[in-house]
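Input chain follows. Return structure tokens only.
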Amino acid sequence: MVSQKLPEDTLTEEQSKLHDEAFDTPDPPEHPKEKGWSSFFKPSMLTLLGVVILVGMGEKMAERFLPLYLISMGGGILAVGFLNGMDNLLSSLYSFPGGFLSDKIGYKKALVVFNIMAITGYSIVLFVPYWWAVLVGAVLFISWTAISLPAIMSMISKIIPKRKQTMGVTVHSLIRRLPMALGPIFGGMLIYAFGTILGLRIAFGIAIGLAVVATILQWFLVKEPEKKDKKPIKLIRSIRNIPSSLWYLLISDILIRFAEQIPYAFVVIWAVNTHGLTTIQFGVLTTIEMVTAVLIYIPVAYFADRYRKKPFVVTTFIFFTAFPFILIFCKSFWFFVIAFVIRGLKEFGEPTRKALIMELAPEDAKANTFGTYYLIRDLVVSAAAFGGAFLWNIGTDVGPRVNFLVAGAFGIIGTVFFIVFGKDSMSTPEKVVLPAEKGD
């Protein structure tokens, strides 16, 4: 029960002290009302979310079609698998220094540095007409999300009350899904109109322009946070600081990402090259996936902030597992629509999972722990992305099905592991209980 303020003359001296601490009104900057949704309407936060849209739009116009571009430029299936594996590997390697750089120089300057890296990567792909240039450029332009995520998660954990942190993560996830939904449609239209090679080069040219605009807005409108001197961050110490409860989630997450990444780069090949869908239709499928995710984000976050988080994460893992199995039966556009609705539903508990990571992480090292978690996860999962190419290459008819079946098997193992060993967190309204009430 929530206690009520008692008359001061009825309290002992010790109870009076506890009573005053419990009911003192905090200073305005720390008041929960000041940490709520109004924080998302501050200029710095709005600009940061705008940057996420601009850079993300440029990236997603081309990213989903890179396997087609590689093959058109003379690269083979192994090159596609290498690209996907490198994406996971470098994202993991960037996540830890990304969190370190954000803590060291501030997220504003860190994001500017990575914007410039992304622009350089796009330029390499645009101006060097060889398939290997995609691999070289990807080393630079896939780094942006890795640097931004630890910084943004840390920001959300500081400005949003604990009872609303899942909703805070959800708002960021919703913003990120806008370019993920719209980018592939525009990219598919460019490829349909100009062909795979020219269309993708135009897309990368637009990506450069959007990233430049984002960098300018960010530099002038985002307020630089006050930098505090911190002790050097050591990777070994960061790994040791991960609590056992978070390790269970991490192991489950790794197995589930195997289910996602083994077929990830080959879905577009399965749809377009094998079953004759157009690139525009594939862009529409991606939009269907993102719209499905967006529609479930808010209601799921609402309930996840009030009840246990584990059931929502388990549900997400089930949808991750189902997607590769369903792909086996997809032979027409409408079958793919069903599959991509399922793929969108895999986002059911993704913000909840991220909020659970932040809750299980140590209080004094949340951003660092978040970055270390992703470093370990993506480093291991990169092996699955590489391995997916070899499974696909077994044979024209057999390879894709083996790829999907192996992916689904990893999903089943990861889901069962989390159901048995995964820890939970309960989000409940905060209450103040005086010593005299403990027995109530």
